Predict the 3D structure of the following.
Amino acid sequence: MDYIRATTPDLLEEAIAVRFEVFVDEQKVPADLERDEYDDSPEACHHFVVKDDGKAIAAGRWKEYEPGVAKLQRIAVLLPYRGHGIGKKLIEVMEQDARASGYTSSILGAQCTAEGFYQKLGYVTESEEPFLDANIPHVNMRKVF
């Protein structure tokens, strides 16, 4: 597996294609909610793509939430590749990138079905109640590096 910072338009489009397959096709998130201004260029955000033998199979991104705090977003692994540690490694790679950029913690909005996954990675739930994002229940979570 190759965990790659998406620094070219082609790599960015591969990452977005993974997200569309997971969020739009599988989870029925409206397409207009999936792509935003942070997808306009590789420089607009810290985008990552995971490749298996040249095929994009996972993606994620992070951006500054506030000084010292990175916000991890749009973390997606294609269905056949789930349960093999790819998402865990992707999170670790993004956290390492944020730390190398001077960030000391990260936050994310986790789908409630993934809350346990993130807890195993050291994230603590901050939301008192779940909230809807794209009509999917989420909770806010935080991790200090």
